[in-house]
């Protein structure tokens, strides 16, 4: 969060603007993450037993940012990790084998803790289903919550988020793309009509 | 990735690095309470071993089981093969049983290639060692071990690292696979052996050769000792084991000449007192036990990348 000086209208002056319409800029994302952090603490009555697990790739930096905000409010660090769900996906057989991403479970584990899964976009819900299966093999949390930056609807499974940055009504052909400074050089959520060929996180 | 893994030389640098990075993620699985992933649920892996090899078979079996595949072990001894069945009929039997991958170890160089390209089976074929030809998963696990110690923390990975492979290169499929793979990854390989134990045509390999171990050792980042495969020897390759061990064995004196970061490797099974002394094998530099652990992770990566997805459904 180094660039508070930036004009509020268009994020990412140092990098090419993402295609499509920007629905959340850098400041909107910062505010949404701050609100989610407070909601997590409020709901959980503090952060002592929390573990934040980001789902790669974009969920991981978001989880770290939420952890920073929680640390600023509560004065202690909350364990943060990442959980790769590739091997648990239900569409594994439909595509060429994919590279695995980092799974990093905090050293104290997740048993009897409240795990908050963090992802960028909630869409069909299949990623989260895979994440719940993956968690099952790692340990037994006392509860699992879900925080997402954007909920774009079109759920295919009975899954909902506990903490949502922004509810974004979309049509199925539209693409929602989340960019975060850590991996993309810019913080922005954009929506496009799907004809520009951007790969995006629309499947998330 | 191609559909089969027959030769370390078939792998592009991207393929090899994908296998190494996948193996790096899978290695952490060994530290988890539930050492299992669902990626190959419902797939069948056949271990087809025409030669005895307990450690390679167990390693592949553990890898397949950790990915939730069903494993069928087919050992030639006491099977239909000893009754005279041909490779083709064995293959057709496996095909009829619905194998998705065949891991094959055979005494004849080229048998896995024949199996993969004959049209007898539709499954993926993984070469687990054929004759004196190749052993690509051993080369991958060796490269993975070197990469963890010598390449992980620097850009370019193993680029420019020097590796000495010492011993019975002539009878070693590991040496050939390692030379090919390490060259792909940008490392420089020197083969050290008595002239009688270097294969004909070694000058066409992407390696340097030397007869003098003491000149090579101070400059290398990894030393790999090979077992003298006396069961494959029918001739006088060196005068006595004692002379071999004195001129080409790795002992404490030679180990003292190595650089501080240099690691000592051995594909196993090792013969203590012959190519390597016990104090070297048990020293801090020795990563021989770690190679076994890494073998499971690398074989998981290979099986996952060959079987986990669907190349045609992209």
UniProtKB/TrEMBL annotation, chain A:
InterPro entries: PRTase-like, PRTase_dom, PyrR, PyrR_bifunctional. GO terms for molecular function: uracil phosphoribosyltransferase activity. Residues 1-22 are annotated as: Disordered. SUPFAM superfamilies: PRTase-like. Coiled coil: none annotated. Keywords: Glycosyltransferase, Transcription, Transcription regulation, Transferase. One of its GO terms (biological process) is regulation of DNA-templated transcription. Residues 23-164 form the Phosphoribosyltransferase domain. Its EC number is 2.4.2.9. The keyword Cell cycle does not apply. Belongs to the purine/pyrimidine phosphoribosyltransferase family. PyrR subfamily. This is Bifunctional protein PyrR. It comes from Nocardioides flavescens. The gene is pyrR.
TrEMBL record, chain B:
It catalyses: carbamoyl phosphate + L-aspartate = N-carbamoyl-L-aspartate + phosphate + H(+). It is an enzyme of class 2 (transferase). GO terms for molecular function: amino acid binding; aspartate carbamoyltransferase activity. One of its GO terms (cellular component) is cytosol. InterPro entries: Asp/Orn_carbamoyltranf_P-bd, Asp/Orn_carbamoylTrfase, Asp/Orn_carbamoylTrfase_sf, Asp_carbamoyltransf, Asp_carbamoyltransf_Asp/Orn-bd. Residues 3-147 form the Aspartate/ornithine carbamoyltransferase carbamoyl-P binding domain. Pathway: Pyrimidine metabolism; UMP biosynthesis via de novo pathway; (S)-dihydroorotate from bicarbonate: step 2/3. It comes from the Bacteria. One of its GO terms (biological process) is amino acid metabolic process. L-aspartate binds at residues 83, 173, 227. Its EC number is 2.1.3.2. Residues 160-306 form the Aspartate/ornithine carbamoyltransferase Asp/Orn-binding domain. Keywords: Pyrimidine biosynthesis, Transferase. Carbamoyl phosphate binds at residues 55-56, 105, 135, 138, 268-269. Catalyzes the condensation of carbamoyl phosphate and aspartate to form carbamoyl aspartate and inorganic phosphate, the committed step in the de novo pyrimidine nucleotide biosynthesis pathway. Belongs to the aspartate/ornithine carbamoyltransferase superfamily. ATCase family. Heterododecamer (2C3:3R2) of six catalytic PyrB chains organized as two trimers (C3), and six regulatory PyrI chains organized as three dimers (R2). This is Aspartate carbamoyltransferase. It comes from Nocardioides flavescens. The lineage of its organism: Bacteria, Bacillati, Actinomycetota, Actinomycetes, Propionibacteriales. The gene is pyrB.
